User: Fold this.
Amino acid sequence: MKVRKNRNSSHKKWATIFSVFPGGGHFYNRQYLRGSLFLLLMVSYGYLFGGVILFGKQGGGMIGLFTLGTVPGEDHSLFFLIEGLLALVLILIGLAIYLFSIYDARKNGEKRDAGESPYKISEQYKDIVNKGFPYLLMLPGILAMTLSVVFPILATVLISMTNYNINNMPPNKLFEWVGLGNYLNMFKLASWQSALLYTLSWTIIWTICATSLTIVLGIGVAVLVNQREIKFKRFFRTIIILPWAIPAFISVMMFSVFFNDSFGAMNLQVIPFLDRLFPFLEITALPWKTQVEFTRLALILIQGWLGFPYTFVMVTGVLQSIPGELYEAAQMDGASRFQQFRKITLPWVLLTTAPVLITQFTYNFSNFNVIYLFNGGGPVIAGQQTGGTDILVSWVYKITTESAAREFGMGAAITVFISLIVMSIALTQYIRTDAFKGGLKK
Amino acid sequence: MKRISTLFVAVLTLFAMTACNGASGTRTNVSDDSSSTVTSTEDSGEVQERGQITVWIETASYGWMRDVAAIWEEETGNQAEVVEMTMIDGIYKIALDGPAGIGPDLLTAPHNEVGDKSTQQLFAPIELSEESLSLINAQAIDACTYNDELYVTPLYMSSNLLIYNKDLVSTPPDTWNELIEIIEDSEFDNNGDGSLGFLCNLGDFYNSAGFLWAGGGYLFGDDNTNPDDIGLDSAGSVEGAKCIQQLFNLMPKGMGDRTTANDLMTGLFAEGKVGMIVRGTDVLTVLDEAGINCGLARMPKLPNGNVVANYSGFSGLAMSEFTDNPELATEFLNFIVQDRFAADYFAQSQLVPCNQKFIDEQSESNDIIKAFSEQIVYDVPMAKIIESNQTWEPMNGAMGSIAAGSDPQEALEIAVKQIQDNITAMRAGEN
Assistant:
């Protein structure tokens, strides 16, 4: 049914106003199916979650989120915080649906203004199914991700703004909001500041050294194995993948024993062997695990061993995609093997694998396994709160679970701090290398 | 196909929404444990009320606990649900599970947690019967008491002992000089490939504390209750630390690495290459399987004549503050501490029970109990107040420095300063 174009009609405006009541705008537009769907959605949403939003399950909810409990012993601050967060998320989702219904009615009102008639039921149904299908398919995935990823992250951020530690430990006591207090204390209070700077400096050094070693080894070995002259390429590649295939957990624990000063194979067998091979170097048994510098060296070496197969595999794949004509042309121009490597292979490989290499940096920044399993973040430095090889994550682990002070609030703040560093570095590097654009800069 | 898929996904989402709300909606009762479900009608006391409690027991004692729970059910009709859970996990979980209503009635806990947990109102005071109290070792009761209330019913006690290889060491050393003599014996080549005389993971303060106490030092003043008075750098402690340094010099350098030292030590001993080690009785099963002819003895004396006073630990069952059924739980506790179960406990768990009669009877015939009962008299229980948790890391650091050769006095002073800083920070709540 065609309606005459009426330039003075204000269906759009009325549809929007009526949509303040869920579904109202659609009923105004005579889209009864759509309208009833939205109405049903909002009503059932309110019924299901209304209680949770307001009161939570243990008296929390939105109110609890602001106060974090008023009666110690009865109100559990942590539960209030989490329920409050849940209530907040539910409100946001409900709001999103509500706004969408208003927008939808408005758009249909627009269409009516333009003279189209969105009335037929079958048309409406087809419209919903076609437009809504992709969203519906994504919905379970989004729900799962919200619950298991977004929610814990938000909870951590919220906890970082409280003073949740042993002095304010629920259920006996309440903890409170301190806003950015933890973040300020991290940098201002002498005890936290010194520990933070010490740990941060070693974390940065560790990340750079370990990742660089991994990358250099990976690329170097990949290029070597890829040379024309090497036979049995498959055999070498299989062996080289072994460090990556064995669970890192086990490998690191084995290394922990391997590097023991007196009983480990390193000092008992490997070093005497090297000493016999190169007597002029005068290599002696080293205090791998009792002196900080050597523990750090051992850790970097171990991470190099553990991490380079990954880079190796990746670079091998990339190498095989470099067009052979480039090398032929270079050879005809008289370039040496090394020049070919520097001018063709290296830039190509680095640019193609840039995103992955960045993830290697971020991975090592928070590489808890290697650090903690090798020597527990030790050796313990006299007078230092953190161990000699503690990185930021293992330090957070210690102050939250192993220390008597159970500094959950501060631990969460440091975690957020770590995340900000990692995210900003990753983002800037992505943008710099134009990796998202996928191009190869000449 | 598209329509069906859409419908399917829509229904799935609806299910998810209702499920989320449904699951959370049922748990409305906050303090709901697996508590007493009265299975019989309310009669005038003729029908027995059947109750149920949940017990979190750690691995070593699990088999025994199940047996005792079965006997309890037989004799009284009450059920005890026994769940295996390590002490560390249980103590960590009780803070969250208890208030949420899914915690246990009883859980395994060490004695040095009573201060912390009772202040946080996670453990409830236990009122055992007079008869039960008389059956338990007095030291154990004392260690598990805080502010005149008993918070843990002791099940077993632990302490380091001197374990020696009878094939390499004929008589265990009594005095310090005897100890040094055995180690420096030409039979033992301490840094080469031959047998080693003595190994102990002194880098871990739990093992080396005994030397400081024997030297005359102390942890906290007023019998380990006053955290403002730290005695770790007193003259007595320094004397003990000097003995530790002497031992470090006689042991291979690798003993300074406390993460692997325990395993390496036990492994080497099981191969028959070590004369003496200092460890708890839990390694004996491993050593017996390896076929080593081991003997146990109390620790040797320091040059000043005091026996090395290792840390002693008493562990047992604590009652959760959130239990619905304290009377039934107490009844269970009174039941399990009876004399008749002690022998079985030792047989199944290889841990020394706190039952006094058992210790008295066995101290002549059983080597383990004999050595244990000799040593436990000198031992110092770990401190119960929460500040004691702040002492481990700094003291481990001090032990590391001492192993590396620094002056014991200096190392201890640095550690004490750090402990004081930690305690101040903890008290101030970082403000």
Summary: DSSP finds 18 helices and 15 strands in chain B. The two ends of chain B are 63 Å apart (CA to CA).
